[in-house]
Amino acid sequence: MKHIKVLALFFSLGFLFSCGESVVELDKTYEPKIVLNAIIYPGQKVSGISVTKNIPINTQPNPLTLFISDADLSITDLSSGKSYKLTYNSTKLSYEYKGSDWLVDYDKSYKLSISARVEITTLTATSITKTPKKGFSIIDEETVSGEIQYRETDSEGKVKELSLKLNLSPETNYYPISLVALDAGDSTFIYDNSYVEVKKDDVIKNLERYKYIQRQIQNVNPAALTVDFDINWISIWFYSRYRMIVYAADDNFRLYNLTYRSVQEFDGNFHEPKINIQGDAIGVFGSMIADTVYFKVKK
Question: Residue 291's beta-bridge partner residues?
Fold first, then answer.
């Protein structure tokens, strides 16, 4: 499940560094904050919890100095009241639970509590997530798999989209999708694609832009048991093996992922993203169920 947590980290790193991209003149006052990237998964031990610090606007970040290794961090099962202290893993640059007596459960509320020193200030924060209910999965027999030709057509000459069908998690209406081209490179790029002309130099320069694609299913009917979704071919840029991960995400992650990049209004004014954290932290403490399918796109 390591790749799942790495992908979740990209969301938080984007939020962390986005403040350095603005060209709008802002108040130069710097307010230290803890930056959380904390996603837990039912049926698994807690691991990969990233704790970093924010940086002043228009400063060059040094990733090696951003990580906070001495935070007091715990997660409490609110149904039992039992707390589990997390330990820093210096190899993985993240926090984890080292005991063998606890796995995250479905449909339960968990509270994260953290205290950490940033600059000369001790900061504290809490957040609560409710894990999705059991039931989510990819329906393999009705989802793209095996090998498929690029923009393959049916017997009537109509292009077949990449099919995806899910068993839904009850009361969950947000399902992020991650597509990764496992053989991405300038030699496997689909230059004769049906959408835009891309030169080899652009592929090399912006490889990750084409390699990692995000899609999402939202506003799902809460009474539905399944949902069908087509992945459009504009998401496919390589003749490659693909890994598609679909998540059933809690409301914390939904609000965070939908708003952290959209903080500037049309009139230039800024508003805060919707973050369900109380205290001196930004980022996300959320929970998700994940399922994975593989397929290959060929010429």
Answer: 246
Q: Domain check: are 147 and 84 in the same one?
A: no
CA-closest candidate to residue 176, choices 211, 210, 242, 220: 220
206/208 Cα distance (integer angstroms): 6
CB-based contact 123:71 (threshold 8 Å): no
Q: Where are the alpha helices (DSSP H) in the chain?
A: 2-18, 63-66, 200-205, 207-211, 251-259
Residue ranges of the chain whose pLDDT lies below 50: 1-26, 263-265, 267-271
Q: What is the pLDDT of residue 269?
A: 47
DSSP lists the bridge partners of residue 180 as 212, 243
Q: Are residues 128 and 144 in the same domain?
A: no
Tell me, what's the pLDDT at 22? Answer: 41
Give the integer Cα–Cα distance in Å for 82 and 45: 15
Distance from the Cα of residue 248 to its chain's centroid: 11
Name the residue type at position 168. Answer: L
Give the pLDDT of residue 261.
64
C-alpha 170: how far from chain center: 21
Angstrom distance (rounded) from CA 54 to CA 61: 9
Residue with tokens 């490889």: 207
Q: Residue 199: its pLDDT value, please?
A: 96
The distance of Cα 28 from the centroid of its chain, to the nearest Å, equals: 30
Q: What is the pLDDT of residue 274?
A: 72
First to last CA, the chain: 30
Domain that holds residue 254: 2-132+249-289
Tell me: do 128 and 261 sit in the same domain.
yes
pTM score of the predicted model: 0.85
Checking 192-199 for CB contacts under 8 A at 24+ apart, the result is: 193/237, 194/151, 194/233, 195/234
